[in-house]
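Standup notes, structure subgroup. Blocker cleared on the zinc ion input:
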Amino acid sequence: MARKRRVYVRRGVDPHLEDPYLRRGGYREPTVCPTCGLVFHDKRWRRDDELSHKLHRRKQTLLQKCPACRKIEDQYPMGIVTLSGHYLPEHLEDIRNLIRNEEQRGAEKNPLERIIKIEEGERMLVVQTTTESLALRIGRIVFRAHRGSIDYKFSDREKLVRIDWHRD
Ligand SMILES: [Zn+2]
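Run returned:
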């Protein structure tokens, strides 16, 4: 069950706050994520489908969910981008594409950056992400392409950023 989280204001991405899903030295090599196929190799999670395939068949390969799949399973976002306003419905398709493109672009660099879900309401779109940085990039790209106003709230206690974008 998702737990309730309060937001405390913080000024920027604070490096002392750790991602609880990135346990240091917590994964053995080789490990393959059974859900998305990422490989833990050279101390990093990476997308390498060929290697993933090969490792999957080996007995000594550990099958363990990667941090991104665990956050998605737990519905534990580290970024929440809320887009709202009268402007939104007419530009929904374009904005949705911007968001998906940004996710794909980011995944090439860091495959642990993913969208957990996108919820649509009336004149509203809420995007939950597995990392703060993906949420920040989504906010920035929507703001750059569509103007409007944007507001960032960082949590003081944990890795979580809330971004509110609005345009009427
Ligand atoms: Zn995974």
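Discussed briefly. The first strand starts at residue 31 and ends at 32.
Next: hand off to the docking folks.
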